[in-house]
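Subject: 33 kDa chaperonin structure
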Amino acid sequence: MNDTLLKFMLGAGHVRGVVVRLQSSWAEMRRRRRHAAVVQGLLGELTAASALLAGSLKFDGTLILQIQGDGPLRLAVAECQPDFGLRATMKVEGLIEREASLRELANAHGMGRCVITLDPRKQLPGQQPYQGIVSLADADGRGLDSLTQVLEQYLARSEQIPSWLMLASDEQASCGLLLQRMPDTGGSAGAAANQAEADEDFSRAMHLASTLGREELLRDSPEDLLRKLFWQEEPRIFNPQSPHFHCTCSKLRVADMLRMLGRDEVESVLKEQGEVDVTCEFCGARYGFDLVDAAQLFRPEINQPPMPTQRQ
């Protein structure tokens, strides 16, 4: 089960795209965290979308895609790291209808939103992660029923680039296809003609992509999809990538989080439970801190021995 992400360009270079197929990484996420089928499918789409968006950007850092909901789905998060390491999780409260839409899951009271964060790997002094927020409703306040609609709206508003997106997920794979019209360069005498040609090329690419069915997207390899859909456009493929499951949790990171909670809070948990037990919401790894471990947390840094490896 090979996971593949392909960046490509069509025809005269007016249309760029990304296609992704996740199998082994998606299987690993499902093995570690099981959810009801309808929300599991949404999490798969969210994960594929995070890889697509990361693949469409020239950015050295982590892309974090979140759905913050006001319905049964309270939170869904997918992260794509610079090397296309992926992890995802979600928090669900209450009962879920079998065929519930995104609007019913996360925007029942009109307060749901989608948050996209770009966290640079090497932050400059004073630099903060970029964050874009978009409602789970359209301009008229009507709730959107799919993640595809939400992200197309985000791309149109934030990047101001015409985009077309398709996502699908099932028990076997999570997949996605993203097309974008290249920005106009402008300034030349033939700019108007070039813009018209670019518009036509993007319209043709969207028409061809719209013939793609959900089952085809889930079944066919990225290479086969590009050949079937765009063989006349002579797609050029760049930098094939291999997405994979990777969780960035560690005992050191959990220790830092406990230090931020403070000595009083940690000692209170120790008094009640005898151990501070933390489980990663992404991968399920368990990190336990007993009295000795906890004492080391609040010693001066120079005297602290290396933290032991994780215990599960």
